[in-house]
Amino acid sequence: MKRSGILGLLLLFLATVSFGQDQYIFPYGGGQNKLFINEIIKLTGKEKPKICYLPTASGDSERSIIRWYDLVSDLSVEPSVQRVWISSYNQKKSFEEVLLNVDAIVVGGGNTLNMIAIWKAQGIDVALKKALEKGIVLAGGSAGSLCWFVNGTTDSRPGELSVVEGLGFLDYSHSPHYASEEYRRPLYQKNIKNGIFKAGYAMDNYSGIIFKNGEPFRVVSLGDEYNCYFVSMKDGEVVEEKLKAEIIK
Fold first, then answer.
1. What predicted TM-score, i.e. pTM, was given to this entire model?
2. Looking at the predicted structure, is the pLDDT value of residue 8 above 60?
3. Is 58 one of the annotated active-site residues of the chain?
4. Which fold has domain 20-247?
């Protein structure tokens, strides 16, 4: 085949192949607020995106749901809520049908361990993976941040902080509430030093990291006192690196 013919076939292939969409995950250490929701809106690229709130970790708490609707009431979004405490009588669409037909999904705080167990029982974990691959923005704070990582520390069990496994969409460990709860920092660093956790990201409340295609893209914060950190091992010791953040207002 002539060189021009090969080039023509290559151009035809490039014109028809799908390269997929960028994948965004926006975990923040805790604290739902309008400024973070505005960042989620921007990530969707839509003027009025459909954003679904998942309150699974709080047991579909009505208080949490009311707060969600109040939070976004004056923002340019089409808000919805997906409960897990449902029956086939009051919800005809599958979880996957619902979650794959929005522009962003925000996960609320609460009991991470119970949330992950319910998601796996209901196939919501699979639906969320498909949502990410479709380019739907995933976000959340506290349990809603921890769930996207490989593992991290949680207060989901009685007695003390312990290890919980996440969905692994982000190939790092994680600690939310890093500065606001005194046992978070020492336990997270201990687990990294003992090899229980791989290197990862710790976040104070009101700070977060936007990940693009699995890697940090932007670090954001509501003030200089709220920080994110990369915590890893170097020469046998734990190293905590404070990340430069963009203060959003």
1. 0.89
2. no
3. no
4. Rossmann fold (3.40.50)
